[in-house]
Prior knowledge:
The chain has three domains: 6-55, SH3 type barrels (Roll); 85-199, Immunoglobulin-like (Sandwich), CATH 2.60.40.1600; 237-325, Ribosomal Protein S8, Chain: A, domain 1 (2-Layer Sandwich), CATH 3.30.1370.110. The chain is 18% helix and 32% strand. It has helices at residues 49-55, 178-181, 211-220, 242-245, 254-274, 290-299, 313-316; strands at 6-9, 15-21, 26-30, 36-40, 44-46, 85-91, 96-103, 109-116, 121-129, 133-136, 141-142, 151-156, 170-175, 185-187, 194-199, 237-239, 279-283, 305-310, 320-325. Strands 6, 7, 10, 11, 14 and 15 form a six-stranded antiparallel beta sheet that branches. By secondary structure, the protein is of the alpha+beta class.
Amino acid sequence: MNIGDKVRLIRSKEEGIITRFLKNDVVEVEIEEGFKLPVLRKELAVVSKAEDKAFKPQSKVQETMAPQRAVGERSSSHVKAEKGIYLAFLPINDKLVSLHIINNSDWDLPFSLTCGSEKSHRGLLGGFLSARTFQKYPIDLDLKDFDEWGNLTFQTFYYNFGYFIERPTFFKKMRLRAHTFFSHKKSSPILGKDCYLFQLDAEDAPLIINPFELKEKMMQSKIEELPLKTIEKPAATIDLHIEQLTTNFLNMNNAQMLDLQLRTFELKFENAIASGMDEIVFIHGVGNGVLKQEIQKKLAGNKNVAWFQDAQKEKFGYGATRIKIK
C-alpha cells in the first residue's frame, strides 16, 4: 500500500484514499466528505489496479484484497484493538440528536446501555455488538430534555470466537454535563461523521500533584478580602429589662435571663465604643442588684471607660448606670 491508493474497508465496505501511515500498523484513510479514519492495515484492501491508477497514476499496487474471514475469526498476525467503545450523539438538526453505541475494537461485545436513577432504570440498547460495528437507539433525543437523560450506564463483557485471554467485565457510569457536552464534537470512528463523541473505555489521566507548584500557587493566590462588618450604632439609652429583650422570658430561669441581659449589655457597649459614642446609659432596674453588680464589674478597669455612675436618680432611682466613654 502507498499513500494515495484507493482502498476498501473490509468490514464496512466504505472506500477512501490513504493519506498517511500511523504507528502500530494503522493507516489513515480519507473517506467521503473529507472524513479521516484510523484503520488497521489488515482491515483494508486495495480496490484494483485500474481504479487505483485513476486516483494515483504510476502507483504500484502492492496488495490485493484480503480474503474474508469468518465472523469472530482473528488471524494470528492481527494486532488486536483492545479499546474503542464510544457513545456518539449525531446531530440531526439544532434540536435533535441520535444516539449510537460504537464498537471500534476487535472484541465482540454482549452489552447493555441503560439510563435513569439507582431506583429506576430504563433500557436503551442491548444485545450483541460485533467488532467494528455500531447500534443506533431508535428514538431521537431532544436537547431541551438534556437534564432529564439522567445517568447512563454501560455494561459489557469481552468475547471472541476461539481462544483468547479472558478479560474482566467492563462497567461504566457517566453523567453528561451541559457545560462540557458540546465541547466533545469530533469525527467518530465507524460512522465517519462529526458527533458529540465520548469514549467509554478511555484510560483516566493519572492525577499528578507537584507539591512545589501547589505551594507556589498558594503563595501567589490573592487572599480574598473579607467584607467589613457593619457596626450598628445603639440608642443612647438601652433598657435591659428582660421583657424588653425577649417575649420568651416566662420559659427562662434566672440564670438564663441574666445571661441574656449581660450578653446584650456587652454587645451594645462594644458597638457604642466602635461607633464613636461619648456616653451611654443602661437601665438595669433595682431588683436584687445582681445585674447592676455584674455590669459594674465589667466596667471597672475597662480601658475604654472614663467613668461610670448612677444615672438620673430622679428618673431611674438607682436603676440605671451612665457610662462615659473615652
